[in-house]
Amino acid sequence: MPLIPEEPQIHESAQGPRATPASGRTAPTPRPVPGPRPAAPSRPGRPGPQRPTPPVQRAPRDVAAKPGPPAPAAPVPSAAAPAAPQIQLIPASAEGALDAAEEALDLLLDAGRAPGEVLVITTGEQHPWAAHELSFGEASYWAQHEAGDDVFYADAAVADRAGVRPVVVVAVNGGDEATAATVLPLAHKRAGALLIVCGDPQQVNAVLGAGV
To answer: Which of 51, 100, 122, 154 has the fewest CB atoms within 10 Å of its CB?
Structure first.
């Protein structure tokens, strides 16, 4: 009986390409398609490559608003010179000048002036207070001046040692014209705000000028 050739059987394992080549070696795994490379990380301390920043176009108003150079500083004004003291003249004779000075002193104290703000200078005979204090010695006398808490009396001989006080009262109670010519300008320099002169107006004006 003739043999009928068998139909070839198709195994499922035979469908499609073989996973294993005939040589028995494993087929290489396909590599993924390489995409764009990421930027290499920058090293510590060294910045990575940066793209140049495109220039920014300023609007016309930005250019106009650009500040200009600073203005030069204004010169500092120098300190103003101290104002000259006011001068008041009380007409009095040589014999009555000391009494006029005492009355002016009383008015000053009644108006609120502190005793330590007043210096009284005589061109002739010493004031009784000055003579009394000098009887204890010059050290005690000038200590009263340095304390500055009471009216200080000085005559023409020591007036140049007295310091500046807000008010100076001058009693032109004697002395020659040369003494008055020396004491009155000195008293004007020692007066911080007010100079009161008790004496002959003609003599005082001749020394201090028409401002009296």
So the answer is: 51
Neighbours of 192 (CB within 10 A): 16
- Residue type (1 letter), 109: L
pLDDT in tens, 16-55: 444 444 444 544 545 544 444 444 444 443 444 454 455 5
| Pair of tokens at residue 96 | 């009555």
Q: Decide if 198 contacts 169 (C-beta within 8 A).
A: yes
Residues near 105 by Cβ (< 8 Å), separated by ≥ 6? 118, 120, 151, 169
List of E strands, the chain: 86-91, 118-122, 152-155, 165-171, 191-199
Q: Rounded CA gap, 27 and 115, in Å?
A: 122
